[in-house]
Amino acid sequence: LPLYDGHHISLYVGDDMADFATALKSCMDAGVVWVNPKYEDKVTNLNTAKKWNQFRFKDILDLETGKQVFELEHEVRSVNHRGWTGLVRR
User: Fold this and answer.
1) What 8-state DSSP symbol labels residue 27?
2) Would residue 60 be called left, alpha or beta, if left means φ above 0 and alpha means ψ between -120 and 50 degrees?
3) H/E run at residue 83
4) Which of 12, 53, 68, 88 is the least crowded, having the fewest Cβ atoms under 10 Å away?
5) At 55, is the secondary structure helix, strand, or coil?
6) How confident is the model at residue 88, as a pLDDT?
C-alpha cells in the first residue's frame, strides 16, 4: 500500500457525549490521538475534544501486538458536531 498522503475519513460515534468521551479515552489509552498541524483543532484532552466536538487519530494498530499496521487519518466526531446530518440532532 502507498504511504499516508494526507487524505482522511470522518466518522460520527455514539448516541451522546458520553459515548464520544469513551471513544476518545480508548484512543488516548492506545496512544493514537493525533494533532494534525494543518488544522486549528488541537485536541489533546477531553476538554478540547468537547470544544471542537471531534478528535483525530491516524495510526491503526494490531490489537494483539500494538504495532502500527496502517496509517489513515480518522476525524472522529460527536453527534453534536456541526457537520452531523443524521435524522436527530443532539
Assistant:
1) H
2) beta
3) none
4) 88
5) strand
6) 58
Residue 33 has pLDDT above 80, yes or no: yes
% helix / strand / coil in the chain, to the nearest 5?
25, 30, 50
Q: What are the backbone angles phi and psi of residue 37, rounded to the nearest 5°?
A: -65, -10
Distant-in-sequence, close-in-space partners of 90: CB < 8 Å, separation ≥ 6: 15, 16, 79, 80, 84
Q: pTM for this structure?
A: 0.84
Q: Residue 51: is its pLDDT beyond 90?
A: yes
- Residue 83 makes CB contacts below 8 A (sequence gap 6+) with 10, 77
| Grid cell of 90 as nine digits | 443532539
